[in-house]
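User: Design a sequence. Structure:
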């Protein structure tokens, strides 16, 4: 995400970059790179938000991915309720400068 989505020809310099990870808490692809890439993204000014489905899973990694665990983590019981956090995410997006 960090190198493909942001910084390329479609990236707008005056618009904040935000990554939103929707996860069940289990990294399955390149698991050893998940946290280092999240740290690099945050170091490059990308605000990272996490939507965690089924809060029993791996909260420490999901918290580490989020830029601010107080404002950038959203919890869901299951994927069927994803729409229940949309307004909270939009409100948070409007706060990012």
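Assistant: Done.
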């Amino acid at each position: 995400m960090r190198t493909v989505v942001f910084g390329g020809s479609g990236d707008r310099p005056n618009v904040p970059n935000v990554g939103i990870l929707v996860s069940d808490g289990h990294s399955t692809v390149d698991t050893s790179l998940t946290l280092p890439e999240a740290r690099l993204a945050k170091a490059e000014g990308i605000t990272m938000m996490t939507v965690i489905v089924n809060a029993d899973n791996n909260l420490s990694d999901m918290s580490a991915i989020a830029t601010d665990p107080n404002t950038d983590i959203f919890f869901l019981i299951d994927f069927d309720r994803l729409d229940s956090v949309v307004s909270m995410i939009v409100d948070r997006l409007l706060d990012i400068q």
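The chain has a mean pLDDT of 86. The helical segments are 34-43, 59-65, 86-95.
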